[in-house]
Amino acid sequence: MTSSKKAGGLSFFEDLHPPKSRFLEDVLTGLAKPQKSIPPKHFYDARGSALFDDITGTDDYYVTRTELGILDTIAGDIAEMAGPGAVVIEPGSGSSVKIDKLLTALDQPAGYIGLDISRDHLVAACEDLAARFDGLSVGAVCADFTQPVPIDDLPIPDGKRLVFFPGSTIGNFEPAGSKSLLERFRGWLRAGDAILIGADRVKSAEVLETAYDDTQGVTAAFNLNLLTRINRELNGDIDIDAFSHRAVWNSELARVEMHLVAEHDLTFTVSGKTFAMKMGETIHTENSHKFTIDRFGALAASAGLTVKAHWSDERGYFTLYWLERA
Ligand code: SAH
Ligand code: AVI
């Protein structure tokens, strides 16, 4: 471990935030491609995390509400499968909203570790959790989970590990990336440990496109904030008003794509490098893959995991899966 310091109420805080040079490299490489693209993990500065929280409160983004409803219904099943004294590790923990339900359902959980790339948001959420769950050991790890995370070097309490990965964040990766990520999480499991993961389901284009282009414009602000972040952190001069938000369902690849569309021909610089875009050209900023139950099972199997149980809402919009090492 390179650094370890305790923030208020936390049993440990490990700061492995990637250096700014990685953000710069991703942006310069992505903007130089024929189809410009930037990985979605860069949405999440403090403002991006706050905007994501606002998205979850919109009427159109059914994802969070639906998953919270399923968690309410299955609390008893989860408590039984996890058993007493479980230790929950939550990659991409964000505001740690769903964890409240899980920790409340579990029988005397021994610990909780939140892991997220958005440092301030992570620490605030974990401190809040530590204050509310008296006696629970709460740790926070600021890291990029697409890179190796030295989980076994962290002071994690003993107990059955439950890796909790809700929100369909798995859908933000292309097939090869989602397989690698599941393999990484599998590597955190010992015999008897499990993964509880949420994945959004394929549904009508209309419902999906509205969820990713909400009528209040919050998702548009979330998407455009990436450009604000580039201007601020990477010395950019992008005219943000020259871009608009687009969300489109790609049925062939079973994913909602988010793009930033140039409204007219333009040039801009980022850290001294010049880029040109034609009117209508886009920067591809996110994929949200949607799954059938069969396809998710096949993905899990490809990563050496087996589905022991799964639960869906009545509309079949979203599914939570209990995975164990195959
Ligand atoms: N789990 C929450 C939040 C989902 S939003 C929920 O279900 O509502 C996705 C979260 O993953 C954000 O908090 C973001 O900061 C984090 N995240 C995205 N990519 C990441 C990465 N590569 N490494 C670590 N955290 C990441
Ligand atoms: C974090 N992730 C699963 C969200 C999603 O649905 O793909 C991010 C998001 N993008 C637009 N709205 C929400």
UniProtKB/TrEMBL annotation:
GO terms for molecular function: L-histidine N(alpha)-methyltransferase activity. InterPro entries: EgtD, EgtD_Methyltrsf_superfamily, MeTrfase_dom, MeTrfase_EgtD-like, SAM-dependent_MTases_sf. Its EC number is 2.1.1.44. It is an enzyme of class 2 (transferase). GO terms for biological process: methylation. Residues 24-324 form the Histidine-specific methyltransferase SAM-dependent domain. Keywords: Methyltransferase, Transferase. The keyword Transferase applies. NCBIfam families: egtD_ergothio. This is L-histidine N(Alpha)-methyltransferase. It comes from Hyphobacterium lacteum.
